[in-house]
Amino acid sequence: MLSHSEASEKFIADEERTNWHDETLWFVRSKRDVASKNVDDWERLRNQASDIKDYTLSNLGELLIQFESIAQVNGVEVHWAKDAAELNQIVLTIAKEQQVQTIVKSKSMLTEECHLNDFLEKNGFDVVDTDLGERIVQFRNEAPSHIVLPAIHLKKEDVGETFHQHLGTPKGNKDPQFLTEAARQHLREKFLSSKVAITGVNFAVADTGEFVVCTNEGNADMGAHLADVHIACMGIEKVIPRREDLSVFLRLLARSATGQLITTYSSHFMKPRKGQKMHIILLDNGRTRQLAQDEYRNSLKCIRCAACFNTCPVYRRSGGHSYHQPVAGPIGSILAPNFDKKANVDLPFASTLCGSCSNVCPVKINIHEQLWFWRQDLMKEGLAPVTKKMGMMGMAWVLAHPSVYQIMGKLFRTVMKFAPFIINNGLNPWFKQREMPEVPKQSFQEWVKTNRK
Amino acid sequence: MRVALFVPCYIDQFYPQVAIASLELLEKLGCEVVIPENQTCCGQPMANSGFANTTDGCDANFSQNFAGFDYIVGPTGSCILHLKEHHPLEKIRNSVYEICEFMTDILKVTSLNATFPHKVGLHQSCHGQRGLGLNSMSELNAPSYTKVFNLLDLVQGIDWVYPKRADECCGFGGTFCVSEEAVSVKMGKDRIQEHADNEIDFITGTDTSCLMHMEGILRRQNSKIKVIHIVEILNSYA
Amino acid sequence: MKSREEILQAIKAVSIPTHEMPTSYLPDQNQLNVYAQFLSSLKTVGAHYVEVSNEAEASDALNQLFPSINRYNQIEIVEDGLSLAGVEVLEIKGQFGVAENGAIWLDEDDFPHRVAPFICQHLVIHLKSKNVFAHMHEAYIKLEKASTGFGLFLSGPSKTADIEQSLVIGAHGARSLVIIIYN
Questions:
Q1: A-interface mutation test, from B33, B141, B226, most A Cβ less than 10 A away
Q2: pLDDT > 60? residue A424
Q3: φ and ψ at C143, to 5 degrees?
C-alpha cells in the first residue's frame, strides 16, 4: 500500500490531469461559496448545527434509546452492531431469509467502511450499487474517491469506456446525457427486480423514530419502496434530537456539498410500507472510542458533506485514492487513525494545516486542530521513522541552546556558500524542484553585532 | 513604546533583510526596539511534526529572552500563531503580535513615508489569515477586511492585486514541504501561475516561509518575478 | 442484546461536559416576497410551473405539456408498486412548498404507493399558492405533529452530475417536474 505522499507523487506526475481534477473540485467549492453567501444567516446556522451536534454527543446514549423505542413502536426493527463484522453478519442473515440473488444498495460510506459489498459477494449475493457514481466505480473495481462525488476522478471518456465494456454502449460515446440514460435503463431493471434494498442514513431523529435519506438521483427510494426488506445502516453518531433540527441540517447539507439549495429528495422514513420489513442497524465500530477522546470527539459531528474535500488544496491535487481508505480528505484523515494508527499514520501529515477545511465545515469541526493533535499522538505511539525522531530531537536540542544554534547556522551557510553540492543534490528533497535560498553575508544577529552594538 | 523584536530562525539565517526592515520600520514609527540576542526559534517545526513534547528547551529559551515585554513583535504570522496557541506562559501568549497586526491594531499607523512603484501580487499566508485573523477568509459569510494589505494603501506608487484564488495555501506547510514534496511544489507552482497571470513584478506577504518556498520555484523556473516581505515594502523609500 | 449493552455501556463510560439543548432556531426575518422567491427557486432547481385559477385551466395546461399521453391521477392505494412501472405522467397533491429551495412536502397518503413519485417518467404536483413557507424552519413547525409513515421534501426533477460534473436532468426518479400552482 502506497503512503499518501507516494500515491500523490504518482497522481501529480500527470500534471494536466491533476490540473483538471483540481479545477473541477475547486469549481464545486466555488458553488458552495455562492450558495452560502446567499444565506444571510449562514454562520449562525453553522453555530446552531454545531450546538445541536454537541448536545447530541453529550447525550448520545439517551438519544439512541429514545430513537430505538419510538422506531420500534413504528414497526422498525432495530439492531445494534459493535463492529463491521457484526453489521455484515446482520445484513447477511436478513438477506438470506429473503432467498434473493440481488441486493440494491444506495450510497452509504458506512458500508464501505465495513466492506459490506465484498462480504455479501463472498456469500453469493450480487450487490448492485445504484448511485451512478458508485455504479461506475463498482464496474471498474475501484473505491469511490470522494464521498459525495464517487467518480470525480474519472473523465467522461473513462466512463464511456467503462459503460461500453459493461453496458454495451457504443465505443467512444462519452456524452454524459447518453451515458446517464443507459445507466438509468440498466439500473431500473435492477430496481424492478430486487426485493432487498440497503440504504444509508443521513439523519436519525430521536423524538420521532424516523430517519432521513437524501439523494439527487432517487435511487435510494427506487430501491427501498419496491423492496420487501429495507435495511438502513447508520453510525451511532448520526442521531439528532428533534425533528425540527432537520431544518438546520437540510439547509446546510446540500449547499455545503455541491452548492445546491437542497437535494432533490429528502426522504423521511418513519414506518415500514404495509407488508414490508424495515430494519435499521446502529453501528459502533470504533465510534465510542473516538467519543471517549476529548481532542477527537468533535469529528463525530460530521454529516458527510465533503465540503472539506473540495476546499482542501492537498486533496484536490492528490485525489481520494491517495488516502488509501474509504473516507478520504481532511475528515478522513482525522477519522482513519482511530481505526488503524499504523496504516494511517501518514494521513494527518498530508496537510499544511491551512485551516480552510474547518471554515467550510457546516458543523464547525475543528479539523485542522485535530490533524495537529493526531500528529502528536501518532508520534508518541512511536510510529515515526527513526530518522525523523532523531532529527526532531536533534533540532529541538539545537534550538534550545542559542550558541549551538548560531554555530550550526553559520556552518550550514558556510557549506551552502562554498560547497553547495553537499546540500544541492538528489538526497535533498527540497532541491528536487526548488532552488535553495541564497546565502546572506551575515545572519541577522551577526548584522546586529556589527551594526548596532 | 518598548517592543521586543522576534526574529524567526529562517529569517535570522537566510533572510536577515526582513528583520532589518522590521527593525528600521518599528524605529521609524517611534518604537524603542530591543533585540534579544539569544533567541532561536518559536518551536513550531518540531510541534507541527508531532514532536510538541520536545520543545521544552526551545520554549524556555524563548521565555528567557522575551520575559517582561508587553509587545513581542515578529515579521511572521505562522510563528506568532504558534506562540499564541502553544507557548506555556500566558504572558507570552498574550504579548505576541505579527508586525502588520501590531502596526494596524496597536500603533494605529495612518501614514508611511514609503514608495514602491511596482505591481505586486498579494499572498495571504494561511496561519496568519485564518489563525490570527489578519485578513477575512473567503470561506466565511462575513464582512471582508484586512489588517495587512491596508498598509499597502499607505505606500506611494504601488499597484497591488489578489490572485484569482485569493487565499489558497502555497504549499509550504513546514516539514510538509519535503515530506509531501510533490504536492507541496505543485501547490506552489499553481499559486505562482495565478500571480503570473496578473503580470506582477513581486509577490508579497507576511510570511517568509511561504515566500521562500515560492522563490525556490520561481528561481528554478528562471522567472523574473521576485518575492519580497511586506515589511520591506513598508520600509522602502525613494 | 449483548452488543446493545456493550455500546451503551461504552457511551456511558465517557465523561463529556454537558451541553444545553439549543433553543429552536429563529431564521432571519427577510423582507422578500415569499411566493416570488418560491417561483425563482423552482426555476433554479429545474422544475417547471404553471399558475392557474381552476382545474379546467390546469387540465388545459397539462394537455398541452403532455399531448396524447395518459396521466395517472388516482390516489387509491395500489398494493404492488411494480404495477406503476409503466406510468408516464403521475399527478399528485403537494402539501406545501418552501421558498428558499423550491422543495415541496409530499405525504404518502397523497399517492397510490410510496414508489409512485419516483417510478413515473414525469411528475406533476398540484399545489396551492398560499401554502408556501419561507424557510425549512417554518416547514418543520408545520410538520411537528405529522406522523405519516413516509413523506419527503422533493425539489426539482431527479438529476446527477456524477459524470465529470456535467449536470444531467433525469437520473433514476422522474425526468421532469411540473408544478401546477392554484392561485
A1: B141
A2: yes
A3: -85, 0
Which positions in chain B touch A429 (Cβ < 8 Å)? 178-179, 181
Domain ranges of chain A: 1-33+303-384, 39-285, 388-451
- State the burial class of residue A414 (Cβ atoms within 10 Å of its Cβ: 0-12, 13-18, 19+): exposed
Report which of B99, B165, B110 is spatially closest to residue B132, judged by C-alpha positions: B99
pLDDT tens-digit readout, A73-116: 999 999 999 999 999 999 999 999 998 999 999 999 999 999 99
The chains found to touch B (3+ Cβ pairs under 8 angstroms) are A
pLDDT digit string (tens) for B64-104? 999 999 999 999 999 999 999 999 999 999 999 999 999 99
- Determine the distance in angstroms separating the CA of B101 from the nearest CA of chain A, rounded to an integer: 19
Count of domains for chain C: 1
- The residues in A 4-33 lying below 8 A from C, measured between CB atoms, are 24, 27-28
pLDDT per residue as tens digits for the range B137-186: 999 999 999 999 999 999 999 999 999 999 999 999 999 999 999 999 99
* Alpha-carbon gap, residue B50 to C26, rounded angstroms: 42
- A426, pLDDT greater than 60: yes
Listed in sequence order, the DSSP H helices in A142-175 are 156-167
Distances (CA, A) of C91 to A111, C66, C119, C124: 36, 12, 12, 5
Which of A352, A361, A450 to probe the B interface (max B CBs under 10 A)? A352
Chains B and C touch (3+ CB pairs under 8 A): no
Place of cell 420521532: A208
The verdict on a CB contact (< 8 Å) between B183 and A379 is no
**Cβ within 8 Å, pair A402-B212:** no
Distances (CA, A) of A182 to A176, A213, C162: 10, 25, 14
Shortest Cα distance, chain C CAs vs residue A333, angstroms = 23
Record: fold of A39-285: Rossmann fold (3.40.50)
Question: Is residue A194 within 8 Å of A223, Cβ to Cβ?
Answer: yes
CA distance A304 to A325: 15
Share of chain A above pLDDT 70, in %: 100
Contact A176, C166 (CB under 8 A): yes
- With a CB cutoff of 8 Å and minimum separation 6, the contacts of A17 are none
**What does the pLDDT read at residue B238?**
55
A221-235: per-residue pLDDT in tens? 999 999 999 999 999
Alpha-carbon separation of residue A409 from A416, A443, B2, B208 (angstroms): 11, 8, 29, 17
Q: Could you give the 3-state DSSP secondary structure of residue A182?
A: helix
In the predicted model, what is the mean pLDDT of chain A? 96
CB contact under 8 A, B12 and A43: no
Stated pTM of the model: 0.96
pLDDT of A270-291, one tens digit each?
Answer: 999 999 999 999 999 999 999 9
CATH of residue C157's domain is: 3.40.50.10420
- Per-residue cell: C176: 421532469
Assess if residue C7 is contained within a domain: no
In B, which residues are within 8 Å of A435 by CB distance? Answer: 215-216, 219-220
Task: With residue C160 as reference, give the H or E element that holds it.
Answer: strand C159-160
The span from the CA of A411 to the CA of A416, in Å, is: 9
Look at strands C48-52 and C96-98 and give their pairing: unpaired
